[in-house]
Automatic annotation (TrEMBL):
A Pfam family per the record: FGGY_N
The entry's keywords: Kinase, Transferase
Gene3D superfamilies: 3.30.420.40
Domain (Carbohydrate kinase FGGY N-terminal) ranges: 60-259
Protein name in UniProt: Putative glycerol kinase 5
Length: 365
């Protein structure tokens, strides 16, 4: 019993028996083991849950029977790898990573950024172009790729060497997956994933040459931006035994809007997951706001790009897990009962802001 799970019950009696009986009950959902002494007195018991494997009716499908594959991925998580060897230089750096926080604060408070905001604000008043209005309130955020990418470019020796050799490749999760599934034949992303990086200009519909130059990023490491759906690529047969067409690549929030049939301007969806995301379909025009709501791309089809205005709280699901880790409850299901056990909060509020707050101004503390 030395390797058994922790006992459910403490030792009930002092025992000096020389002989013991072990009884095992192998049930459908759990395995239970009980130890008795020679007088049939229970000494201790332990149990372990059994994970049931339930093959689905389609589990025996052949790869050749799969007509196509669509990919929906989280945005703004990225990787750098070597063009020659295909080897990654680091693990995925996710959208919740805060390693560049000091750099972000320094840049946001710099004289250069103040000059950028002032200059683009002046251009907006002269030319009335919304992209200048958006730039006039530009502040870097941890959730965007731009500064996390700059950080890894400056702090990873192998990455620096790859830049000099012109062998560095950049990709968000969708780009990496398609690149691997096609054995390096297709190096691309879609507008919905590109717009989540903070490096793509949703107004000009291209990688932002201005921002790339502003923060000194290599301009030749970014993938081609292609339509969200259509015949995008073919998976190499070596992976699944047959060549499967990839016909859609889209970000998670764009996929949620599309999957919920939010095709029309004015449609709204709210997604509750790791973060909470509010998105409004704004049609073919990007929404420009100075109040913390950002223009992102939902998808691109034959009619053009469909934009969304987005607000987010980055720690929706994270804080539920945090509460469990802090022993506030043992099971997620208990949270509803706890919330309903009191008539009000007594004026006390907990704001889940581990990754900052996206309000009129972005705060991270």
């Amino acid at each position: 019993m030395n390797n058994a799970p922790e006992s459910d019950e403490k030792l009930l009696i002092k025992h000096d028996s020389k002989y013991y009986i072990m009884s095992c009950d192998i049930g459908t959902s759990s395995l239970r083991c009980i130890i008795y002494n020679e007088k049939a007195i229970k000494i201790c018991t332990t149990h372990e849950k059994i994970k049931l494997l339930c093959p689905q009716p389609v589990s025996n499908l052949a790869a050749s029977e799969i007509t196509c594959l669509g990919l929906s991925t989280q945005r703004a998580s990225f990787m750098l790898w070597d063009k020659i060897t295909g080897e990654p230089f680091h693990n995925f750096i996710t959208w919740k990573d805060v390693r560049a926080d000091t750099m972000i604060n320094d840049w946001n408070s710099s004289l250069l950024m103040k000059a950028v905001r002032l200059g683009t604000g002046f251009l907006y008043h002269i030319m009335r172009k919304k992209r200048y209005l958006a730039a006039s309130i530009l502040k870097f955020q941890n959730t965007h790729v731009n500064m996390r990418l700059k950080w890894i470019l400056e702090n990873n020796k192998k990455v620096k060497e790859a830049i000099n050799k012109k062998t560095l490749m950049f990709g968000t999760i969708d780009t990496w997956l398609v690149y691997q599934l096609t054995n390096g034949k297709v190096y691309a992303t879609d507008p919905s994933n590109a717009s989540g990086t903070g490096i793509y200009d949703p107004y000009l519909k291209e990688w932002s040459g201005f921002l790339i130059k502003l923060i000194n990023l290599p301009k030749d490491i970014f993938p081609k931006v292609r339509n969200t759906y259509g015949k995008l690529a073919d998976i190499s047969p070596q992976h699944f035994g047959a060549s499967i067409p990839i016909t859609a690549v889209i970000s998670d929030q764009g996929a949620a809007m599309f999957g919920g049939c939010g095709f029309d301007q004015g449609d709204v969806k709210i997604t509750l997951g790791t973060g909470a995301f509010f998105d409004l379909n704004t049609g073919h025009e990007p929404h420009t706001s100075i109040n913390g709501i950002y223009p992102v791309i939902g998808w691109e089809d034959e009619t053009g790009i469909i934009y969304m205005a987005e607000g987010s709280s980055n720690d929706n699901g994270t804080v539920i897990q945090w509460g469990k880790d802090m022993k506030l409850y043992d099971d997620y299901a208990e949270t509803s009962a706890l919330a309903e056990s009191v008539s009000d909060s007594g004026g006390v509020y907990f704001i889940p802001s581990f990754q900052g707050l996206q309000v009129r101004k972005y705060f991270f503390n």
